[in-house]
Amino acid sequence: MARPPAPGSAIVPDWHESPEGKEFLACVLRRSRRRLFGLLERPVLPPSVAIDTASYKVFVSGKSGVGKTALVAKLAGLEVPTAHHETIGCTAPGAPGVGPVQAGTLLRHGQDSQAGILPGIQTTVVFWPAKLQASDRVVMFRFEFWDCGEAALRKFDHMLPACKENTDAFLFLFSFTDRASFEDLPGQLARVAGETPAVVRMVIGSKFDQYMHTDVPERDLTAFRQAWELPLLRVKSVPGRRLADGRTLDGWAGLADVAHVLNGLAEQLWHQDQVAAGLLPNPQRAPPAEEGGITSGHP
Predict the structure, then answer these.
(1) Distances (CA, A) of 114 to 95, 110, 119, 165
(2) Banded pLDDT at 194 (limits 50, 70, 90)
(3) Given a cut of 70, is residue 129 above it in pLDDT?
(4) Which among 15, 44, 227, 242 could bridge 295 via Cys, Cβ 3.0 to 4.6 Å?
(5) Which CATH topology does 15-89+124-284 take?
């Protein structure tokens, strides 16, 4: 398995804050609010701007209640749920009488796949422009996030294979307020990504805003990073900042809050593509230590 790239080695990290970066980011906003994109939609750029789009499927994995849906909501510029609800599902693309899936769409209980519903799966599309370090070229990254409720994964045997099929990256979540979710990471890695070693894997700690009450001390994070050699990011689960009306989410502020996650994901995926194409060397990561606890398992 290829070793992850060093942060900032493939993607210019603060480019989104530059005047040029803000011009490109404006295409994913409307009147300072985030635009929501269906599966068949894409940002509209000026005719004079021609950039390539790199599309990726990303499966978000983690124990129930760690904040998978909240993370995807923040990445897409949606309201973060204030209470936990099991992910139910979303409209199936191409179903009779059903339009493209809209970001953040959840369904009522009792609907099933015969009515054009994928029970338990929610898909959300996020666009993110980034500048490459090597070529100084801007690429539009299109992330299609797949989020599936844990109850649905247990109930339907076909759910996990469907989420894993043609997946380009796995995001493994744990909560800083739930020690068990952190200790479950090796099992998640083996169960979800064990058969796909070439796929990008990242770990994200949610609810970092409650770090003063954390059940996961920094020494354990350090031990995990050393054993697994995986990128580990932190995100807050608080509601986003508002515009002057006090109700509407501030799109620019929301993008700034999640830029490190989207840049990190773009960097890992772009590097993986370059290695797969033979354009970059493929340094192998060492296997994790077989010592039990959080350092056990096979990445």
Answers:
(1) 9, 11, 10, 21
(2) confident
(3) yes
(4) 227
(5) Rossmann fold (3.40.50)
Domain boundaries, the chain: 15-89+124-284
Q: Look at phi and psi of residue 278 and say left if phi exceeds 0, alpha if psi is from -120 to 50, else beta.
A: left
3-class secondary structure, 131: strand
Q: What is the mean pLDDT of residues 256-270?
A: 97
Mean pLDDT for all residues in the chain = 83
- Report the relative pairing of strands 52-61 and 138-148 from DSSP bridges: parallel
Going through the chain in order, the beta strands assigned E by DSSP cover: 29-30, 33-34, 52-61, 89-91, 117-119, 121-131, 138-148, 169-175, 200-206, 232-234
pLDDT confidence band for 104 (50 / 70 / 90): very low
Residues 204, 208, 214, 218, CA torsion sign: positive
Q: Which residues pair with 128 in a beta bridge?
A: 141
Q: What is the pLDDT of residues 15-74, one digit of tens each?
A: 999 999 999 999 999 989 999 999 899 999 888 888 999 999 999 999 988 999 999 999
Tokens of 293: 């606890």
Which distant-in-sequence residues (6+ apart) come within 8 Å of 132 by Cβ? 10, 11, 12, 138, 139, 270
Letter for the amino acid at 78? L
Residue 297 predicted with pLDDT over 80? no
CA distance 149 to 140: 29
C-alpha angle with apex 73: 18 to 256, nearest 5 degrees?
15
3-state helix, strand, coil in the chain (%, to 5): 30, 20, 45
Helices of type H across 214-250? 218-228
